Amino acid sequence: MGTRAFEVVVIGGGPAGSRTAALLAERGHRVLVLEKRDRIGYPVRCAEAVGPREDVERYIELDEALISSVVDGFLVASPNGEHYRKEMPGIGFVIDRELFDQRLAEGAARAGADIRTGHQATGLIFENGFVRGVRIKEIASGDEYGVECKAVVGADGVEAHSPRWAGLKRSFRPEEVFSCAQELVEGVPDWSTHIEFHLGRSFAPGGYAWVFPKGEGRANAGVGINPVMTDGRTARDCLETFLSHRCPHAKRSRFVIGGCSVARGLPALATDGYLAVGEAAHQNNPFSGGGIINALEGADMAAEALLEALERGDTSSRSLDPYTKRWNGSVGRTNTAFYRAARLFYSLGDDEMSRIMKSVISIPGVFDDKGIKPSRMILGIIRAEPSLSLKFIKSCLKR
Ligand SMILES: Cc1cc2nc3c(=O)[nH]c(=O)nc-3n(C[C@H](O)[C@H](O)[C@H](O)COP(=O)(O)OP(=O)(O)OC[C@H]3O[C@@H](n4cnc5c(N)ncnc54)[C@H](O)[C@@H]3O)c2cc1C
């Protein structure tokens, strides 16, 4: 296996990898997608919220099978128990993530990409410091082989090794990844069409707990915590505390644990013969950890730059640089603001956070039709607690 000539090898068959592969294959390039899992999209390690419709439908048609429920607003519960509810009809959806990932992969396959599940990238092949291919292991047989190509796309998610192999990043620091635990809870009649965020150190030190309704009395309920801010409790322990508070009698299934990047963006997303995209490239929103649509946006920008580079016959770092520039000048810029807001917000104690929530929620323009505006949120926090402005300035100066 592996002798067919490929121009591009994509590591990872999640949203970022499948979308990039589809865009390249549609333009006639020979693309190989490697996915180490046996089944695309499974198991689901995600709360499955996306939105709004026009953002999602840029990438995939939303039909009934994909939509578990429509989200019409949200509820935030402060640490002191106060609730803030905001109506935002049609702000998003809770989807069937497994089917979503499968549809994206099918799109790539239809466009001509070769998708190999059960195949793990184990390293990159270099020639004079230039990435020239991927070393691969077929997991079932243990067979190893190499594939040479003109460019490698690292779309290997939160557990990605490829950006490190390529020299684009170091390992995550513990506080750069939310440690998450989640279950599907069932049999609770009052799940609304609103997604819920619950704040407070008892459930979610340095992060938040969520309930995202999936219709028919079901919801994804989980926690994402900052592992350096806990008192020794794991995400699973925090989930237990949260569920016994929010829905003690719910039937539970589909327990998952996983990490979710809340790291600052990477200064460079490409090097000679290699690009990173999606969560592998720190493209998640560092406030919420959400990364599905960001991964797809990143894929579009990566594919655009790579298509031009392939046309020029030059996949050097310089030739791929427009990708970094475009990302950092658009979504990356918003993510930097979210990163700053997150550092400030999640470092607050419960009392401070409860006081500040009132101010943040009431500040004009803090929500637009896509959700929270990070700059307005920072303003709300500092208006409520002016003493935090110094802390904020310090955190902006620190990398
Ligand atoms: C508990 C939890 C809840 C979340 N909830 C939401 C949410 O509600 N909304 C939202 O937008 N985001 C959410 N996220 C984040 C979201 O799931 C990710 O940001 C998103 O999946 C990123 O897409 P991706 O394609 O970059 O990576 P992934 O979807 O992780 O895909 C990467 C793929 O690469 C494969 N892979 C890894 N290494 C290799 C290798 N060496 N060789 C071959 N294959 C490899 C993996 O198996 C995986 O399939 C959540 C995350 C967690 C953990």
Compact overview of the structure:
This protein is of the alpha/beta class and about 400 residues long.
Verbal overview:
By secondary structure, this protein is an alpha/beta fold. It is 32% helix and 29% strand. The protein contains eleven helices and 19 strands. The chain has helices spanning 15-26, 53-56, 97-111, 162-165, 235-246, 292-312, 317-328, 331-345, 350-362, 374-384, 388-397; strands at residues 8-11, 31-35, 49-50, 67-77, 83-95, 114-117, 119-127, 130-138, 144-148, 151-154, 177-186, 194-198, 208-215, 218-225, 251-261, 270-271, 274-276, 367-368, 371-372. The strands form four sheets. An eight-stranded mixed beta sheet has the order 3-5-4-12-13-14-11-15, with helices on one face. The chain has a six-stranded mixed beta sheet with strand order 6-2-1-10-17-16. Strands 7-8-9 form a three-stranded antiparallel beta sheet, with no helix packed on it. β7 and β8 form a beta hairpin. α8 packs across α11. The protein is globular. Bound molecules: flavin-adenine dinucleotide. Flavin-adenine dinucleotide binds next to α1, β2, β3, β7 and β11.
